[in-house]
Amino acid sequence: ILAQAIGSGFPARTGPTPYKQAHPLTAMFNARKKIVKDKGATPTELEEEVAKALFDIEVSPSSDIKADLKDVYISAAKDLDVGKTGKAVIICFPFRVWKVVRKIQGRLIRELEKKFSKRHVVFTANRTILDKDFKRKGMKVRPRSRTLTTVHESILEDVVGPTEIVGKRTRISVDGSKLLKVYLDPKDKDKENVEAKMATFAAAYKKLTNKEAVFLFPDA
Asked: Distance from first CA to last CA of the chain, Å, rounded?
């Protein structure tokens, strides 16, 4: 081969073989592994965008969470209107991968918000609520983690993550309506643009639970 290269007048190729970029169809197929829909439903365009973004982060040489993302995939993604002009994305993960997602939640949100510019990103896990007729389904005891109250409390923690909740207070108006006040850890006030996300947290919690809540930091 070397003799042929010299004889042809072209220099012999030395060094490693140049990196070949994955074919777009191959990349799309790999990205689709990052989303698993219930009963084989077809992913939406937004869900495919999120799946591709996750795959891109996983294969990025500079990513420090690529190993954690290996077995992480989503189950759904939803657009969210925040106020009159704001936009956000709610990303839902199967509960079986939530422990890993929770560990890297802050870093993964940062990376995804770079890809979904001008949109906040909110995570939540899929959870099943068992109503009071659970005995008809063959269960003797309803796990506390499956009650409506507990699931909604967990969703609240998901939505604000990785910021922690330090207090909650329910205000009841004269007309009987309830408003939940959620106090966030003041040490996170200047981190990750949390203060700018208060309206997003409220909109996401309303979308997922149909309950009103306001988010704020305790007075110093």
From this structure: 75
